[in-house]
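From the methods appendix. Each design record in this collection lists the tokenized structure first, followed by the designed amino acid sequence. Records were kept in a plain field format so they could be parsed without special tools. The example shown here is representative of the layout used throughout.

RECORD:
FOLD TOKENS (150 positions):
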């Protein structure tokens, strides 16, 4: 499972009751994206929640793809957001705190930790392959990115 399958809406219960409808807890579930980002539903949310949902939409769902928000870009952008937080020196618990403040989302720190470990291992593999191929630019690029995550 991708990390984006393990990102949840923090005040899910409260939002569901404001919208008078049920939707999955997972932030990136298709039904969640559809329900939360309909204009008329958005208007039913209290202001603080609306702000967070709008921030989320602006930051992760702003592509022009026809299939938006189901084009995969929101997930990709969110993964980049997580890696950026890590590159800024945040540990898994702090990453979870920040996504809560920014977007009212949460994840289990253990899931964030394994995601970050996985990213480091992927970059290691890229680095090794690029070295073997004699592509030293790609290798040092991967090394740099990996070092940012450590
Ligand atoms: Zn897209």
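DESIGN:
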């Amino acid at each position: 499972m991708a990390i984006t399958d393990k990102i949840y809406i923090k005040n899910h219960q409260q939002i569901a009751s404001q919208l008078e409808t049920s939707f999955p807890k997972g932030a990136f579930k298709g039904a969640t994206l559809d329900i939360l980002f309909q204009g008329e539903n958005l208007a039913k949310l209290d202001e603080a929640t609306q702000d967070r949902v709008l921030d989320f939409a602006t930051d992760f769902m702003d592509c022009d793809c026809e299939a938006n928000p189901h084009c995969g870009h929101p997930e990709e952008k969110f993964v980049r957001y997580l890696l950026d937080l890590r590159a800024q020196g945040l540990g898994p618990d702090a990453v979870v705190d920040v996504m809560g403040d920014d977007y009212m989302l949460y994840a289990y720190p253990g899931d964030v930790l394994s995601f970050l470990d996985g990213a480091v291992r992927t970059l290691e593999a890229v680095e090794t392959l690029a070295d073997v191929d004699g592509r030293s630019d790609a290798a040092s690029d991967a090394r740099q990115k990996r070092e940012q995550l450590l």
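APPENDIX NOTE: The chain has eight helices and two strands.
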